[in-house]
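Query structure, 251 tokens:
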């Protein structure tokens, strides 16, 4: 049996990433796959990119990893771009859309947001059945391991909220949560796949969601010391797991 850590959405939060990597080492993790959004929001994007490149066997492109490479008008994003100039930005350009493999007889596919696009967001708990089933389709962005074959298990990131959901018929959809910007519980979150890696033979298989406490105040202090723009919104998300884009309720 092998244990594979699935991490995603680090968003420049090196403090959370270090906590997750230490926990994964203690758990005896064999491989680490990353589902994108290495940068943005948090202050140490360049350090995160370097660490991910060193530790992750597979790294998938996220929406932040993509648009950070393009010209923008927002000063906050320009600040993050400046931190990534040179090798970190070049590395983001090499990332792939998806990764397919077999594990314990199951065909597994990993991507950042959906089969349609890194910018197409799906919230399974409120999405219609047809939209959830579409997560398993072979789109123009995907090259399946076998022509016409669709996965039994799909894992993704993007929404910063962990879940495991069965999807009829006999499919499983899971979200590994967010390491550095969790928006369901204010702890670093990742998933572990347990099974026989690269094996088509049926064998025991499981998906585990892991929550790791880390020093949130230390991370906020680093962002303040680096004079990162919009620290207040970042701090709200880390402390309370509240997305900055949700309008405030009227009193």
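Result returned for the query:
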């Amino acid at each position: 049996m092998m244990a594979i850590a699935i991490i995603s959405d680090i968003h420049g939060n090196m403090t959370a990433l270090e906590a997750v990597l230490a926990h994964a080492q203690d758990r005896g993790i064999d491989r680490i796959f990353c589902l994108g959004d290495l940068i943005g929001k948090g202050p140490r994007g360049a350090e995160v990119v370097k660490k991910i490149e060193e530790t992750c066997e597979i790294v998938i492109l996220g929406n932040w990893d993509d648009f950070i490479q393009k010209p923008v008008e927002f000063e906050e994003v320009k600040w993050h771009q400046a931190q990534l100039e040179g090798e970190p930005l070049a590395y983001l350009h090499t990332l792939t859309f998806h990764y397919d493999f077999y594990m314990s007889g199951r065909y597994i596919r990993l991507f950042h947001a959906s089969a349609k696009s890194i910018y197409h967001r799906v919230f399974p708990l409120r999405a219609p059945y047809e939209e959830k089933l579409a997560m398993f389709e072979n789109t123009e962005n995907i090259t399946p391991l076998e022509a016409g074959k669709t996965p039994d298990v799909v894992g993704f990131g993007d929404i910063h909220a962990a879940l495991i959901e069965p999807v009829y018929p006999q499919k499983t959809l899971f979200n590994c949560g967010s390491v550095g910007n969790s928006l369901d519980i204010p702890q670093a979150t990742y998933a572990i796949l347990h099974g026989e890696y690269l094996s088509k033979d049926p064998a025991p298989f499981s998906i585990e969601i892991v929550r790791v406490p880390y020093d949130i105040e230390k991370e906020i202090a680093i962002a303040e010391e680096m004079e990162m723009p919009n620290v207040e919104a970042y701090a709200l998300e880390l402390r309370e797991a509240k997305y900055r884009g949700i309008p405030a309720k009227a009193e």
